[in-house]
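Good morning C.,

I know you're traveling, so I'll keep this short. The sequence:
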Amino acid sequence: MTPAGYIVEFGGYYLSIPWNPRARQPYDLEYKIVEQTPAKTKVYLWGKDPLKHILMEGWLTVRQLSSLVEIKVKLTNKGKRKWNIKLSDYVIIAPGGGLTPDSIFVIPTSKVKIGKSENEWMGKEGSVVNWPQSWSNWGKFKQPGSFSTEIKEMSAPFIGMINYSSKD
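The tokens, ready to paste straight into the viewer:
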């Protein structure tokens, strides 16, 4: 599921820079813990595409009392040539025991594109549907499946899940 070239991986988050097209996997990133307290940890990640000379820098922040995972990304062209990049990112959500049937996916968009789902239970692959769908509620998410949206279609650059039972 690689868009025209790139993807970088950090756990369940994939960005489309820097990607190794020969190995079909991300180039390794360096990292450094830049802040670590009992309440908050911040990690700086970086990697450079050796062919296009594009530096990817990322800052990942997690807090003890929050389920929010904050990811900030900066791309810098370190070469002389200009590049047009189709930038994509992916989030893989594998919820644990903290979700209940009334937890919902929150995506500030009005439409999503259906990906793969067994027997097309989410809808026909490739079709664009209005958001939210009934399966945006975790209790109605029958089995693994995928969907996507374009950042230009979003009213804000975030996605999330809300557990209304635990208020998390």
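Safe travels,
E.
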